[in-house]
Amino acid sequence: MEIRRHSPFFLVIFSFLTILSALVAYLSFDSSISIEDCLELDLPVLTIETEGAKKIKSREHYLKAEYFAIEKNGLSETGSCKIRGRGNTTWETRELYKKPYLLKLDTESSLFSLPAARKWVLMANTADKTQIRNFYAEHLAKDIFSNFRWTPGSRFISLFVNGKYEGLYALTEKIEAVRGRIPVSEEDGSFVFEVNQRMDGDYNFRTSHGVPFSIKTNLEILTDEELERRKEIIQAAENEIFHLENAKNESEKSVLLDFQSFSDWYLINELTKNHDAQFKFSCYLYYDAQENKVFMGPVWDFDISCGNISWNDCDNPVGFWIKDAVWIKRLLEREEFASLVINRWNQKKNEITESFEWLQSASKELNDAVLLNDAVWKNIGHRQWPHAPGWKTRKTYESEVQYMTDWLKKRFVWMDKAIYDLHENGA
Question: What is the pLDDT of residue 238?
Fold first, then answer.
């Protein structure tokens, strides 16, 4: 019998299968995993107790909660907080059950030796079976490419919510212009902005070349005058990239780009062939009013990088990808910038090859924690978005890490030859 896709019978069957898959995921949850089990893995534990033991179901509305940060030698920090869901794809994709969260402490505090702050991201890394792609990008940005004034720090932790083990998470510093993070202050007119095709931030607009930006702020509200000033600064940066001479006023003509941060950001994202970094999502920049400069970065969101993707040829270690992003494409047509990128590659390529050993070593330290996480969520060896090629044949954590490492090695060999082609695109 042929079942038409939009027939009532099809919809009933589809709904049943959706509910069944969710039930299987719920029943597979191993509630016997204890805090003591996790501390034996030499990872700290963060427990969240929501008011009334309510489930975290919303990305818009916070739940009041208490948090307890636990190291192997005992309790290290506790306090009141709020928590809600965060992210987009992870919450919207049916195959990704483990969810990321945004944690907002009532009082600025240091968690697990990271600098004190109020807002923290709990990264689930659900789409990445290695759990380490974001951590690897942080390593590239902090330890190899040093032209970023700040890169978010992370600590791998075991997360418990209302007494239940939620899995392995990366407690990560949130991108924001506050003390201890991006070294600028909104009080003097500095601000953070993001390339965001969803255009779902509080303040969104498109530049004259169609680049979609969301303007970030820690202020309660931006006045129309301040919002317009920020738009003008972003447009002025684009004008500089495209050599536009029709700026409306002198302030628009005087914005300077920090080429060093743009160069390092480009190389990290091109090396990893980070899909969203083609000026689609999660491409962060900030304006420093004291220096009157626009900086690229910090790096963020690498879960569908390093071959962990099945579309747009981004699983292929051969071929430029980020080079075609609107602003980057134009910058690389300028010989000054193309030469900077090539020279920077030559300076750092030995360290890049050493990073593959770092990757293997870091994954070994994480192995037991990943296996415990997988005992609950059952990702490795199973179908899961973004369906990286060959996932059916990779039944172990080691095989997933090896796939990522082999992909990076092939990517490096290709880039080490292709990078010199950038000169041909120079103005």
Answer: 96
Helices (H), 197-258: 224-242, 250-253
> Distances from the Cα of 179 to the Cαs of 170, 188, 226, 232, 251, in angstroms?
21, 13, 21, 26, 27
- H/E/C letters for each residue in 284-339? EEEEECCCCEEEECCCCCCCCCCCCCCCCCCCCCCCCCHHHCHHHHHHHCCHHHHH
The model's pLDDT over 255-273, given as tens digits with 9 standing for 90+, comes to 789 999 999 999 999 999 9
**How many other C-beta atoms are found inside a 10 Å radius of the C-beta of residue 200?**
9
Cβ-count burial of 111 within 10 angstroms (0-12 exposed, 13-18 middle, 19+ buried)? Answer: buried
pLDDT digits (tens, 9 = 90+) for 63-109: 999 999 999 898 889 999 999 999 888 888 878 889 999 999 999 99
Rounded CA separation 366/267 (Å): 27
Q: CA dist 167 to 31, 156, 302, Å?
A: 11, 10, 20
**Cα(180)–Cα(183) distance, integer angstroms:** 7
d(Cα 307, Cα 412) in Å, to the nearest integer? Answer: 13
- pTM (2 decimals)? 0.90
Tokens matching residue 339? 């030469």
How far apart (Å, rounded) are the C-alpha atoms in residues 360 and 408? 12
Q: Is the dihedral of CA 20, 26, 27, 28 positive or negative?
A: positive
Two structure tokens written together for 6: 């939009």
Report the phi/psi class of residue 354: left, alpha or beta, with left for phi > 0 and alpha for psi in -120 to 50: alpha
DSSP label at residue 142: I
